[in-house]
Amino acid sequence: MNKQAMWAIAAKDIRAIRNSIQVWLPMLIVPLIMGAVMPAGLILGVRYSGAGDFAKMLESLPTDGLGAAITALDSLDQQVVYLIVNYFCVPLFLLIPLMLSSTITANSFAAEKERKTLESLLFSPVDIPTLFVGKVLSAFLPAMAISLLCFVLYGVVVNVLAYPLFERLIFPTINWVIIILWTIPSIALFGIFINVIISARVKGFQEAYQMGGLVVLPVIALVLGQALGAIAVDVRLLLWGGLVVFAIDVALLRFIRSRFDRNQLFESQVS
């Protein structure tokens, strides 16, 4: 594998992202909503309007781990804010790498077909593994960078707005460390591999983007399950869930390696 060509392909695709508003605009809006607008609205709502209906979520918490940490807090407002920050918002963060990787990967392959640039790559002396890894890096690196940026932004907003209530920093906890170092990378790769398969077969960006967006459905189900009290997104679930997703990533990678060839990509380009 040609490492110089691999990084050149990744750099070229990242430059293409910067030049496409339909790609980079969602990449800015999602982190702002998840990392700043949502936590600020929820925390300020509790501080100035009271715990309200969020207090009902305390009844579904387990008696150990996070549940014990929350019930040990002094006031109901503290319990609800801690619940929102370190429990309710956790699975929502998993949407970020999936949405970003879906958008970037769709642009990486399917949009190349629309721009008529994929054919020149296929006729170049670059081997398929180099092309594949370069494309994966062009999606994985921005997705991880923006996820990390959102993580930092979220931490600043949470600690600044919650400090008057707690008089100490409440972020990050161990589950957030696991998310950023383990769960999010495995989920980002999952979104990339799924969208590589889709983008290699469809004709354009919009079709790839719409079909690739379906990968967020399992995370949405996780969010709903937690909101209804059926699932507790705790440290154990994040660790084992990340391991399961990583195993799926390995299976998807083997599938792609067995099917990802120059002839198939060229046929999808001219069909």
SSE order, one letter for each helix or strand = HHHHHHHHHHHHH
Give the overall pLDDT as a whole number. 80
- Number of DSSP strands? 0
The general outline is elongated
Which radius of gyration do the C-alpha atoms yield? 21 Å
- Summarize the biggest pleated sheet: none
Low-confidence stretches: none
Structure description:
By secondary structure, this protein is mainly α. The model has no long low-confidence stretch (mean pLDDT 80). The protein has helices at 3-18, 21-49, 66-71, 76-88, 90-93, 95-115, 118-123, 128-166, 174-199, 205-212, 217-227, 235-259, 262-270. The protein starts with a helix and ends with a helix. Helix 6 packs parallel to helix 9.
Helix-strand layout with pairing:
Layout: H1 3-18, H2 21-49, H3 66-71, H4 76-88, H5 90-93, H6 95-115, H7 118-123, H8 128-166, H9 174-199, H10 205-212, H11 217-227, H12 235-259, H13 262-270
Helix pairs in contact: 1-8, 2-4, 2-6, 2-8, 4-8, 6-8, 6-9, 6-10, 8-9, 9-10, 9-12
Give a summary of the structure in a few sentences.
Helix content is 79%, strand content 0%. It has 13 helices and no strands.
